[in-house]
Amino acid sequence: MGKQYPKAVVSRVLGTSRSSQYYENKPAEDKALDAEIQSVCAEFPRYGYRRVTAE
User: Fold this and answer.
1) pTM score above 0.85
2) How far apart are CA 24 and CA 28, in angstroms?
3) b vs e for 5-35, b when ≥16 Cβ sit within 10 Å of the residue's Cβ?
């Protein structure tokens, strides 16, 4: 195994903040799914999230 260094030291050497080491990319947006959810909500305005998910 390789040598491990403290995150603070690695961040300082790379010139980044420590919090950037915990950053995770958000998944790509699914425009088609968003549009479908919006259409279900428009058709059934009284549905809650469970019924919208089931629909």
Assistant:
1) no
2) 12
3) eeeeeebeeeeeeeeeeeeeeeeeeeeeeee
